[in-house]
Design goal:
The protein is of the alpha/beta class. It is built from seven helices and ten strands. It is globular and about 50 Å long. InterPro entries: AAA+_ATPase (IPR003593), ABC_transporter-like_ATP-bd (IPR003439), ABC_transporter-like_CS (IPR017871), ABC_transporter_ATP-bind (IPR050166), P-loop_NTPase (IPR027417).
């Protein structure tokens, strides 16, 4: 088992200002699984991802990676955010090199890993470019390359494609699927887009402070939005949100 979440609770503030954002979360994510987490803004999905990444250590309950408690960040878990967070004074290659800086590897091997990752994501011709000189889609590719350059088994993504245009988003979704298939990654993606979740994931977790529903997506890749089975799953998940808006007698 790759990631284990057991009776997880997370609150912010205290006293009258206390607000619970995650309530008694239980979730097991297996090795090589692709899981999407969906929910309304403010439902706790990005908070959950930060906890899995080890960026936030204040919580109740247990978070485990391969049976070991998550107590901080770890190079075995790559993280990609909505904004690429590239350092503007470093080149594309320099940004991707950062996770390797403290690893006891020969410089030649580090350089080879960087070039390998950039080539895999179609950036071989932009190694020496600076972030201001590349598009938003390219910058997000660089962020993915940086997250994977040290070959972590787990990739965590927080709304990674939401700021991109539809064509670029579609291309990056397919590239992410290719990385997952080819490298056996465990992938957890947070998204507000139910269609994206059904397009990519093996399971979709609907979050609303607690786990409201876990939906298996038993559709072969590549998936097509026009497929009736795809549409039925999409509508079933969307209904989870519409139910809250239904008028009461």
């Amino acid at each position: 088992m790759s990631l284990s979440i057991q009776h997880l609770n997370k609150t912010y503030g205290s006293g009258a200002q206390r607000r619970q954002v995650l309530k008694d979360i239980d979730l097991e994510i297996g090795d090589g699984e692709f899981v999407a987490i969906v929910g309304r803004s403010g439902c706790g999905k990005s908070t959950l991802l930060r906890l899995l990444a080890g960026l936030d250590r204040e919580h109740e309950g247990r978070l485990l990676h391969d049976g070991v408690p998550i107590t901080g960040t770890d190079l075995r878990r790559g993280v990609v955010f909505q904004d690429h967070r590239l350092f503007p004074w470093l080149t594309v290659a320099g940004n991707v090199m950062l996770p390797l800086a403290e690893l006891p590897l020969p410089a030649a091997e580090k350089h080879a890993r960087v070039l390998e990752r950039l080539a895999r994501l179609g950036l071989a011709d932009h190694v020496d470019a600076y972030p201001k000189a590349i598009s938003g889609g390219m910058a997000q590719r660089v962020a993915i390359a940086r997250a994977l350059v040290n070959r972590p088994p787990v990739l965590l993504l927080d709304e990674p494609f939401s700021a991109l245009d539809a064509i670029t988003r579609g291309r990056l979704q397919q590239e992410l699927l290719g990385l997952w298939r080819d490298e056996g990654l465990t992938v957890v993606i947070v998204t507000h887009d139910i269609e994206e979740a059904v397009l990519l994931a093996q399971r979709v977790v609907v979050l609303d402070r607690s786990v409201r529903r876990i939906q298996s997506v038993d559709l072969a890749h590549p998936r097509r939005r026009g497929d009736p089975a795809f549409g039925a799953l999409h509508d079933r998940l969307l209904a989870e949100f519409h139910d809250d808006l239904a008028p009461t007698a």
